[in-house]
Amino acid sequence: MRTSPTIIGFQTEYFPPDAISNAVLYGELVEHLAGLFDRVDVITASPHYGREASERDAPQPPGNVRLVLCRPPSWRFRRLLPARFLAELGFTARNTVAALRASRDWDVVLSSTPPLLLGLSALAVARVRRLPLVWWVQDLHPEIAVALGLTSARNPACRLLHAIHDRVLRAASVVIVVSDAQRATLLRAYGSVAPERVVVLENPATHADATTTGDPPHDPPVTVSYTGNLGLSQGLDHVLDVAAEVRGLPLRFVLHGNGAAESALKEESFRRGLDNIEFSPFATDDEYLALLRRSHVLLLSLRPEIDRYSFPSKLWTYLAAGRPIVAWAGRGGPVERAIEESGAGVFAAWGDVPAAVRGLTELLSEPRRQQFASAAVSFYRSHPTPETHAKQLADLLHAAVGTEP
Question: What residues form DSSP beta bridges with 174?
Answer without folding.
Answer: 134
